[in-house]
Amino acid sequence: MIKFMPILLALIMGLVSFKFSAWRTAKELKARSTELADPRLTPLIKDMAKALDLPRIRVHIYEIEPVNGLAAPDGKIYLTRGFYERYRQGAVSAEEMASVIAHELGHVALGHSRRRMIDFSGQNALRTALAMILNRFLPGLGAVISGAALSLLMARLSRSDEFEADAYAAALLVKSGIGTAPQKALFEKLSHLTGARGASVPAWLLSHPKTEERIKAIEKLETDWGLTKA
Predict the structure, then answer these.
(1) Which of 58, 62, 94, 174 could form a disulfide with 78 if both were Cys (CB 3.0 to 4.6 A apart)?
(2) How confident is the model over 38-49, as pLDDT tens digits?
(3) Cα separations (Å) of 200 from 19, 34, 79?
């Protein structure tokens, strides 16, 4: 029992880390956000709420500069100030912003937000526990191997979540009368908007799928739904 104590302590620390991270994230979002009120976006959000048979979808502006959309573990949707400003400047259309909201709603509906918080908050503890086990067989290499293995696993899980949220968003956008064209158009803009430079990085190391893969997946859905010809 004693020899397993370090591993048990690492797992306990992971649980404590998750609880603290969730509390800190909720506090940060509440302190630095305000509810969105936009004359062009509001009607689109109402259309999506109607399609989901919801009385209202609350979207908040999170006061940070990076371009991003967020789905908190409590189900609230956030657009960053940096993303919203790109929209106000005309770089992103209202329909394209609606596709971001639909995507984040997908993360909430499919349980990704809460699971992702658990995944990422517990990573350090899992990495430590795995390193302890591997070091018994490969002294000095346990930390390196466990870190690489967990990074690959989390990237794969994240990419899977993104495809699922894309599909959810596509269905919601079609049902809302917005359509998938804005969703695909935004994919083409994301790299420029975020300043991402992932072309030289292997696809399996990226936390998000490649743009062309995401668009191809949406186009397959359109064909399956009879929206376009095969």
Answers:
(1) 62
(2) 999 999 999 999
(3) 36, 37, 28
